[in-house]
Design a protein that fits this description.
This protein is α/β, with parallel strands linked by helices. 32% of the residues lie in helices and 25% in strands. The protein has 7 helices and 9 strands. The strands form 2 sheets. It has a 7-stranded mixed sheet. The longest helix is centred in the N-terminal third of the chain and has 23 residues. It is globular.
Length: 225
């Protein structure tokens, strides 16, 4: 199986590159290394399964790739560090806004009990649902809709991840975050084009926001709820 052997080698190289980048960006993120659970998830999910055939040879490069319709599959390091910053427990219920290819969804499904994912574009939602089903991710729920509205009937969530850049933090999503929960979202910033923002809601329901890593994401589409 020459191709499988080569993919395995490329995945190992990618994991080493991600570990180095996590160390190098610790001043922004506060994390010097990935947790065992996130590292195992990144090593388990077959990124090549979510990449278009024309880009398959680039599957384990540490950069984003186009998936059509003006969207991208995120850089593996970004997938890893965003997942890490949510501190997802094995019993957690997670909301993802922006299913895209389904790659980040699969990583979340590896570390959480259940994942609800909302995708604005029906074509992407259908493709991701089919691919995740083929790979056996039975703990994922996907629907087409306005991600800014979240998934109210499944709320509250222990963690929320937004995989597209917003001009501000949607309050609708903050309301769907459980006390003690965390949300990670790219937000437009004046000093940088975008920054990762971590939203932490304490047990009393008070919210604390901290800005971190400079990033570049496609815009979050859909109207505010």
């Amino acid at each position: 199986m020459p191709e499988e052997t080569e993919l395995a080698r490329e995945r190992d190289d990618l994991m080493a590159e991600i570990a180095a980048e996590v160390r190098d960006t610790a001043e922004w993120t506060g994390r010097k290394a990935l947790s065992v659970r996130v590292r195992n998830a990144m090593a388990t999910v077959p990124r090549h399964a979510f990449v278009p055939a024309a880009e398959r040879h680039l599957s384990y490069r540490n950069h984003p790739l186009p998936i059509g319709l003006g969207q991208t599959i995120s850089q593996p390091y970004i997938v890893a560090i965003m997942t890490e910053l949510l501190d997802i427990g094995p019993d957690a219920r997670v909301l993802e806004v922006g299913t895209g290819s389904g790659y980040q969804t699969a990583v979340l499904a590896e570390v959480a009990a259940e994942v609800w994912s909302v995708e604005l574009l029906p074509e992407l939602a259908d493709t991701a649902r089919e691919k995740l089903g083929e790979l056996g991710y039975a703990n994922v729920h996907i629907r087409t809709g306005n991600g800014r509205e979240g998934w109210p009937e499944a709320a509250p969530f222990d963690a929320i991840m937004v995989t597209a850049a917003a001009e501000s933090i949607p309050e609708t999503l903050v309301r769907q975050l459980k006390p003690g929960g965390r949300m990670i979202i790219p937000v437009d910033d004046t000093a940088f084009r975008q920054r990762l923002v971590l939203v932490i809601k304490d047990e009393k329901g008070d919210v604390r926001v901290s800005k971190g890593l400079p990033v570049a994401f496609v815009p979050l589409r859909g109207r505010f709820a």
